[in-house]
Amino acid sequence: MSSKSDLLSSRNGPTSRRRFLTNAAGLGGALVTTHALPDTLADVPTREPGADLSGHSERSQYVKIARIPEAGPGMRNVDPSDAINSKAPLGQLMGTLTPSDLHYERSHSGVPDIDPARHRLLLHGMTRDQLVLTVDELKAMPSLSRTVFIECTGNGWENWKAADENLTVQNTHGLVSTNEWTGVPLKFLIDLVGKDPKSTWMLAEGGDAAAVARSIPLTDEIMEEAFVAYGQNGEPLRPAHGFPIRLVMPGFEGNLNIKWLRRLEFGDQPWMTRWETARYTQLLADGKARQFQLRMETNSVITSPSGMMKITPGYNRITGLAWSGLGKIGRVEISTDGAQSWRPAQLNEPLLPRAQSRFQMDWVWDGKPTKIVSRSTDVKGNIQPDRKTLIAAMGTNALFHYNAQQTWSIDAAGRVRNVLA
Amino acid sequence: MSSKSDLLSSRNGPTSRRRFLTNAAGLGGALVTTHALPDTLADVPTREPGADLSGHSERSQYVKIARIPEAGPGMRNVDPSDAINSKAPLGQLMGTLTPSDLHYERSHSGVPDIDPARHRLLLHGMTRDQLVLTVDELKAMPSLSRTVFIECTGNGWENWKAADENLTVQNTHGLVSTNEWTGVPLKFLIDLVGKDPKSTWMLAEGGDAAAVARSIPLTDEIMEEAFVAYGQNGEPLRPAHGFPIRLVMPGFEGNLNIKWLRRLEFGDQPWMTRWETARYTQLLADGKARQFQLRMETNSVITSPSGMMKITPGYNRITGLAWSGLGKIGRVEISTDGAQSWRPAQLNEPLLPRAQSRFQMDWVWDGKPTKIVSRSTDVKGNIQPDRKTLIAAMGTNALFHYNAQQTWSIDAAGRVRNVLA
What pLDDT was estimated at residue A47? Predict the structure, then answer.
């Protein structure tokens, strides 16, 4: 059904009817005779009344979707008590949002069970006043909402040194999610507490047992865009995501988005906590460690077809997600011949800054083994590097900020596997 | 702490520090002495490790949030088996989205439990071809995502004839929600099946026991914007919201967004189903019934403070939601003196077409009884009517499309109540 000319004639944007009917044959056939009708309609259970209306609408019994707890690079299928993160099911998600209960999870001492009525936020240090705020006081302040991604700086670390061919896109890229977050602009709190103009750094500390604390440089961008969030996708934060309040730092390392936030201290230099001197430093090829590599880079991944999926020759739709800590995604290109040639993917509107964007492209697979890859470019012109370029710059000692182009190989049987370019 | 000059000097947008500290006193005081510190921090449970990471992050035990099933105007606190809708908790939501499990629910024969592998969509009628599509075939087609509201045409019906002062905003306005929906453009399916240019109407039929079916005029706008959705806030539809597929008709009556969609028939005139000849017609003052009043009008409501809440004198933040079936919201004004004078509210970005938009405004309540009201205007210049104007046009026989300005009265004790203007 498919041919080289189909492949070459592929174009970005909606597929023509003729093209789709050809393609659909590859899916098992969309055209049917009227004979199929009665049998088909008989399959639709419209005879019995359904379930009662409810206070909460749960998922279908036919939908199996969950995060997977892991213990670090190569440490999968572990006991939940050993898990350090829980990855979002990117291969099953559609559109751009992640349901709150499936947003990726990362914690250093588990998930605290905090009573919001007793929780406080302390603002102090190089400030005119010292404030202790309740959650209700924060909710009464001017609010904003931003639909942005939060990404663990370890996202992609599975592929730093080698590629396990049995990984899914949930394993390789499941430490990024996009939600609508609602809260109080950091700038409002800074004006409220009267920050000393000489204060150029802020310490954010969490209320979990690990008391994760990070030093954050108070650049104009961060003072404009950071906020203290109490809302997630329309509801209060889930405990795993910082209930009752967390810091949201659009475009920056996930660990800076301090969960269970209890303290903001203002100073004129970084505090050099263990989280920035040991835990979240980047080990370079020469053995030196880079500190404060805070910005999440331009990235993308094909979520379908992706690792451990199986496709059939003929029409297949390629779709995936692209994101950048520097702003909107400007362009995504896809190669279906192992990065020899590239075609533009369709980007779905609206394109929001620092949010995941959905891309898609028609593809007719001729049944021959090949490799598919995506490459994103943000509006500032930053291009997602190929693996060789990233490794040349960073070496293979590093654990964080792996944003190399993701290659999926497809064998003659249509099996999709994780490989290095 | 508050004074007439505070009130008159109130401005749209972020509150100045001096203003907020004055206001905060009305909340119980945000400024604290250092003495409060040790006690406060001792309250933060940072000593024990928290719960294990998980496959799904559930809500906090401290968050009680749910829809309320009702049986129609004035028919509350009914047995779930008698419920015809379940209302979203607008007073507790933040930002603009509604979590999928809290999206308002309306069904005519309960919620069917459909196996997606057996479900089919039939496209037929005045078409070149006849198609029966599987859910997987639909998922392989070009997709779009839209963040839009869906609203039951009965939203607001509690206030058509009289006002029960014990209603919350969930009771009065809980039949509207905003989600990100993902699916296949109707236009693509129309091209695929080869619609006869003479076909100007489409019948959409659901796979529930009631087999709800509506005739939809194929205007250019509808052919451009309608789509068949399989995704909701990033995941497959919930059964209550149409799993595995539903029609999404941005800006039009909720009942046109056919759930459990099983059939699209193309013709050259409406089918005059019972849903458009009896159920969803609008009874006018003269006893005549209006058919096909399909567009949801410009609307808004203050969600806080709102019905059954209690406020204290001094600083209070007014916030709410505005939406229009005709496009983006252009302006929201708020009156805190029973619609005698109006001030512009701050509209939170981004403003998406046919989505709920969040508005907010500072307010210092002087403790005297008053009434607060919101009034929205969309970008096309359509102004939300006051109750007198709506009733003058529609009479009080009607049940649907009630978009009059919502008035909340506040008594000397700070109790907020639902009243007619």
Answer: 73
Distance of alpha carbon B226 from alpha carbon B228, whole angstroms: 7
How far off is chain B from A269, nearest CA to CA, in Å? 24
As a whole number of angstroms, the distance between CA A237 and CA A257 comes to 13
Whether the Cβ atoms of residue B252 and residue B296 lie closer than 8 Å to each other = yes
CB contact under 8 A, A107 and B55: no
- Chain B residue with Cα closest to A18: B192
Residues with Cβ within 8 Å of B317's Cβ and at least 6 positions away in sequence, in order, are A140, A141, A142, B304, B360, B361, B362, B363
CB contact under 8 A, A20 and B119: no
Lowest-confidence region among A77-81, A268-272, B236-240, B355-359 = A77-81
Q: Is the pLDDT of residue A186 over 60?
A: yes
Neighbours of A25 (CB within 10 A): 15
Q: Do B94 and A21 touch (CB under 8 A)?
A: no
Q: Which residues of A touch B49 (CB under 8 A)?
A: 109-110, 209
Distance CA B178, CA B99 (A): 9
B40 to chain A: which residues are within 8 Å by CB? 120, 122, 132
Q: Which residues of A touch B359 (CB under 8 A)?
A: none
**Quick check: helix, strand or coil at residue A83?**
coil
- Among A150, A155, A156, A168, which residue's Cα sits nearest to residue A103? A150
Q: Is A338 exposed, middle or buried (CB count within 10 Å of its CB: 0-12, 13-18, 19+)?
A: middle
Quote the crossing angle between the two packed helices A17-27 and B186-193, to the nearest 10°. Answer: 90
List, for chain B, all residue ranges whose pLDDT scores fall below the cut of 50: 1-40, 42
- For residues B93 and B102, what is the distance between their CA atoms, to the nearest angstrom? 10
How far is Cα A256 from Cα A275, in angstroms, rounded to an integer?
Answer: 10
- Looking at CA atoms only, how far is residue A258 from chain B in angstroms? 14
From chain B, the residues in CB contact with A96 under 8 A are 145, 180, 234
Size of interface A-B (CB pairs under 8 A): 397
Among chain B residues, CA nearest to A46: B209
pLDDT at residue number A174: 98
Q: Is the dihedral of CA B70, B74, B75, B77 positive or negative?
A: positive
**B123 is written with which tokens?**
């496209």
Q: Which pLDDT does position A421 carry in this prediction? A: 86
Mean pLDDT of chain A: 90
The reply to whether residue A238 touches residue B58, judged by beta carbons under 8 angstroms, is yes
- Confirm whether the ipTM is greater than 0.90: yes
For residue B60, the chain A residue with the least C-alpha distance is: A239
pLDDT, residue B142, reads: 96
Q: How confident is the model at residue A7 (pLDDT cuts 50, 70, 90)?
A: very low
Is the Cβ pair B239, A110 closer than 8 Å? Answer: no
Asked if A137's CB is within 8 angstroms of B105's CB, the reply is: no
**What is the predicted pLDDT for the residue at B273?**
96
A208 closest CB neighbour out of B50, B315, B358: B50
| Contacting A residues, span 137-166, partner chain B, CB-CB under 8 Å | 137, 140-145, 147
Q: Tokens 């969803």 identify what position?
A: B280
Q: Residue A39 pLDDT more than 60?
A: no
d(CA A238, CA B15): 29
Amino acid at B40: T
What is the structure's pLDDT at A17?
41
Mean pLDDT of the region A366-375? 98
Binary contact (A118, B43; C-beta < 8 A)? yes
Please check whether residue B224 touches A, CB under 8 A: no
Q: State the residue for tokens 């019906």.
A: B157
Token pair of B394 as six digits: 């529609």
Count the Cβ atoms, other than its own, within 10 Å of residue B366. 13
**Could you read off the pLDDT of B393-402 as tens digits, one per residue?**
999 999 999 9
Supply the pLDDT for residue A45.
53
State whether B120 and A40 contact (CB < 8 Å): yes
